[in-house]
Amino acid sequence: MKKNAIKRAVIIILSVALAAALLSVFISAESTGITFDTVEINREKDSLRLDISVDAELVERYKGQDLYLFELRPENTSEDISSLTPSLIGPINKKVVVANLDFTRAKLYSSYVVAVKADDGRFTVLSERGYITNPEALAENTNPFPKKATKKGLCTHIGSDAQYLGAAHTTISIDLNEYMSASYTQNSITYINGGQTFYFLLDRINALDHKVKVLTESGMNVYLNIVLGKDNGSGLSSVFPLCSGSDASFYAINTDTVSSVKYFTAFCEFITSRYSKDSTHGFVPGYILGYEVDSVNWNYAGDISFEDYVKSFENAYRILYSAARSVFSGAEVFVSVSNVFNTSDDTAYSYGYKAFLDRFAESVKLHGDIDWSLAVNPYPSDPTNTEFWTDERATDSLDTEAAERIRAEEIGRRIDDVINKKLI
Asked: Which pTM was predicted?
């Protein structure tokens, strides 16, 4: 994570724990010998500029060969390039610039990989994915993130309570599964995205409009916490991971299929354009993805590796981030983590947020650094104990890998420690 991103991150503490391609065959990728220094939308919003660096060893190994660029959708992996059509970049060199790659909004969620082509027509991918890092270039709302006089937050839907207690921030949890439907009913809002029709539930959207509007007019920053609860028969089974038959409370967003990516993208674009473009329905400057995503119990993705788990979350995060920033350039998108800083309890499927954020930050930087933000649920190990400062399992220090929990009162004071010591 960029240092200024952490400094700007808001920690919300709530009272409740809140063709040629058809002939090509993919060969395993090389190490990350090629990196994307820049993948950015230009001022005219009609093309991309890609600045690419190539290791000297690769330049020598593939001397005289051309580089090719493949566009990947979120559900694609490098193994899918045999079904994709590449663009010719030109001869391999230490520094390569693609100055005017065609861009439309439909490509906002795409990423790119670089490959070389062998004499037999097979491609070898030489890079990690490179994502667009400035979706805010498309935003109509270019106002800054609204600052408040206090960081006090309250989980409430009653604006007068928040005002009375002096709170300036609140969250509303919205379950994707309860706001969309796979088919049209008399209770539907029809929404077209990417040439496909989607249906949102009118009564749920009207109720959300009212909540957001009232809280906004009460002077509060409203944060929408996007989660995926149990499959309720709405027909959105593709959005769930394959493990959705479990008894988990919340599930990870499935970004492995065309259908699931389309549904989640449509959801993110509908919600962000409704609540962050202007204040017609109230205003939302920030979004939180998932609930305590360092714990698989609260963001269940099934029996997958830690590496795949982080990649899947990053995919979903970038979709929400790009949707929000492309509407409101000042939008903040938060990663929700638990109160467990470190853990060795593998049986509980809890990684601890230090390990999760270490890997997430590394992956984001590798694929195109963006200003992600952090939302911590810093309740004590015993959630019924309101005297959180007495929590014997919490510590005042981030100096040790063994620190299981960080005291709630220390989190704000320790942000600089986190940055300077690169613990996250």
From this structure: 0.88
